[in-house]
Write a structure and sequence with these properties.
- The chain is of the alpha/beta class and 245 residues long.
- Helix content is 39%, strand content 11%.
- It contains six helices and five strands; from the N terminus they run H-H-H-E-H-E-H-E-H-E-E.
- The protein has helices at residues 19-22, 41-64, 88-104, 124-140, 154-175, 201-211; strands at residues 116-120, 144-147, 179-185, 217-223, 238-242.
- A five-stranded parallel sheet has the order 2-3-4-1-5, with helices on both faces.
């Protein structure tokens, strides 16, 4: 059988296929069909479909992980709450580590929920003002708050704290709503020491709250006795922080 040679040289539009090529031997040539030329549409549709599936997957993942924006703990009035204090970094920390978890019931990376807060500084006045602003901010977010009165002696203060805790626990059982209890100056309630042989009854009660993540209570306090804060708070979900500009 004679096979006609095929030249890969220059090509002219005036050239015609010889009878041998057009006839019995044209099976040695391949002419693509029109529908096989530039048939990219199915591939593009597959790629677009893959991107859509990925987008849906990311959305579902974010919903599952409860990705609520931090703005959920912002309030519009710049003259109220944490918006009014001069300690901007402290305000951000309290929003992220206390208010945000309450609003979203989200634990941190360690699986804990800060149920206690101790603010420390050398002066009383800014500490009292920041905690008061914190309570105001929480109320503006719809979070229930209770503040200890100033005109109580030590036994009365302890009694007030126990009653406030009991009432807040019952409220959480009935409504599933958290209560922030501001117990004020911690030195007026407990004897602050870095290491203690035995805790008082009120200290044990606060520790009990911290061990029960969803007791429905977050307690807040302040102290200027910064070098005597008990070490056991380091092992509890209690945020111990200083005022930071």
């Amino acid at each position: 059988m004679k096979i006609q040679c095929i030249s890969f040289g220059s090509y002219s539009n005036n050239m015609s296929i010889t009878p041998d090529i057009a006839g019995s031997n044209r099976e040695f040539l391949y002419y693509p069909k029109k529908n096989e030329e530039h048939n990219y549409k199915p591939l593009i549709l597959k790629i677009l479909g893959s991107f859509a599936a990925i987008a849906v997957g990311v959305t579902l993942y974010n919903l599952r992980k409860n990705k609520v924006p931090l703005s959920v703990v912002d309030i519009e009035d710049k003259s109220k709450g944490l918006n009014s204090i001069n300690f901007r970094r402290t305000a951000i920390e309290l929003k992220k580590k206390i208010l945000y978890p309450i609003k979203t019931e989200t634990t941190n990376k360690k699986g804990t929920f800060n149920t206690g807060l101790i603010l420390s500084d050398t002066k009383d006045k800014p500490l009292k003002e920041v905690l008061s602003s914190f309570s105001e901010h929480a109320e503006a977010l719809g979070i229930r708050t209770k503040e200890i009165p100033d005109n109580l002696n030590k036994p009365e203060r302890r009694k007030w704290v126990f009653n406030a805790i009991k009432e807040a626990e019952n409220h959480y059982k009935e409504t599933n709503q958290f209560t922030i209890i501001n117990i004020g100056n911690l030195d007026n309630l407990v004897d602050l020491k870095i290491v203690k042989a035995k805790n008082s009854a009120i200290e044990d009660k606060l520790i009990e709250i911290n061990k029960n993540v969803y007791s429905g209570i977050v307690w807040t306090a302040w102290t200027n006795n910064t070098k005597s804060i008990p070490m056991y708070y380091n092992n509890l979900p209690v945020l111990v922080t200083k005022l930071i500009d």
